[in-house]
Write a structure and sequence with these properties.
Order of helices and strands: HHHHHHHHHHH
Distance between the termini: 18 Å
Shape: flat
Helix content: over 70%
Number of strands: 0
Structural class: mainly alpha
Radius of gyration: 21 Å
Length: about 240
């Protein structure tokens, strides 16, 4: 009980919400009569493929964003490169400010339809939270701590790896969590450009006026977003130095 009390409330409360929503959806699903189209779309063999395609799209986009945004954020906090900071953030902000559907359509004209185009559109859309949080996380590290590490003989690279990044981890990972949730929601729009996702359920429900299919798609996207956010919170908690908890 003592350990449970020490845990942040979202660590144990969020999975309760997931379980309640999941059980509620299963009960509703078991007690509802579906049309032939709804049954075909919600059959586990089909739904499993759709959910996995959505997760794959989200994870691939997230990995690419992390590989781009975190090193770029680190680079932009170095004294010689700080002057580029506002320029890079403003460019990244363009992707966030643009409507997601419009962004995907623009990339479709350039690259065609399909999975790869959806991934590129999602990367551009989600790069800002991780880039900005990396910059903020490193910028808030106490300069005296950095000077102390250099004073005991640490090189700039060693100071970055062993001092700055561990102290910035909570903020950086919070940005990754934000990007993940954004990507889970935005990935539903990829169905408009030929990439399979849970958005297929939603668009089919709207197009054919099948509200049960629409509700199912919306609930499943919400459950997936909550689950990924919770898993990201656990990673954030595990990676945060004990002194910062």
């Amino acid at each position: 009980m003592t350990r449970l009390r020490r845990l942040p409330i979202d660590v144990w409360f969020e999975p309760l919400i997931i379980v309640v929503l999941g059980v509620g959806y299963v009960i509703w699903y078991q007690s509802t009569t579906f049309t032939a189209t709804e049954e075909a779309s919600l059959a586990w063999s089909t739904l499993r493929t759709t959910i996995w395609a959505h997760i794959e799209l989200t994870l691939v986009a997230t990995i690419i964003v992390v590989v781009i945004a975190i090193p770029l954020g680190i680079l932009l906090t170095r004294p010689s490169m700080k002057w580029l900071n506002p320029i890079a953030v403003n460019i990244a902000n363009v992707g966030q400010a643009a409507p997601a559907v419009g962004l995907l359509v623009l990339f479709t004209f350039w690259l065609g339809t399909g999975f790869n185009t959806a991934v590129i559109g999602l990367v551009v859309y989600a790069i800002l939270p991780i880039l900005q949080n990396t910059i903020v996380g490193l910028a808030q590290v106490d300069q005296r701590v950095i000077e102390a590490s250099r004073g005991i003989g640490f090189s700039g690279a060693r100071t970055l790896v062993q001092v700055e990044l561990p102290l910035a981890v909570p903020v950086i990972l919070n940005g990754v969590r934000t990007a993940l949730v954004i990507l889970v929601g935005t990935a539903t729009l990829s169905t408009f450009i030929g990439a399979t996702s849970l958005g297929t359920l939603i668009t089919t429900g709207v197009t054919l006026f099948l509200p049960k299919l629409l509700v199912s798609g919306a609930i499943l996207v919400g459950l997936l977003a909550l689950t990924i956010d919770w898993l990201g919170r656990l990673v954030e908690l595990a990676a945060t130095p004990r002194g910062l908890l």
